[in-house]
Design brief:
Layout (H helix, E strand, L loop, with lengths): L1 E6 L3 E6 H9 L7 H15 L23 H5 L4
Length: 79
């Protein structure tokens, strides 16, 4: 079974039941915008080996604001 969520009648998003159940169990926690970006990058790189990061100053030192943190050490030179 799939559920459809209508957003302002412009488009619809379909999600399988498993994703809805997982979303309901998720806990929320407060974090900075920088921490949220880093967590999302880490989760996606762990989930899909095809995900890479490109840009200036994101390597070993973790970027200008440290957003990429230790991802270089965790995933290697694909960062």
């Amino acid at each position: 079974m799939r559920h459809t969520v209508n957003l302002k009648s412009q488009c619809s998003i379909s999600m399988p039941d498993a994703r809805i159940r997982r979303a309901r169990r998720m806990e929320t926690k407060k974090m900075t915008y920088m921490q949220a970006i880093r967590l999302a990058l880490d989760e996606e790189m762990a989930r899909d080996e095809k995900v890479i990061m490109m840009g200036q100053d994101i390597g070993i030192l973790g970027g200008a604001y440290g957003v990429t943190g230790d991802l270089y050490h965790k995933y290697g030179p694909i960062v």
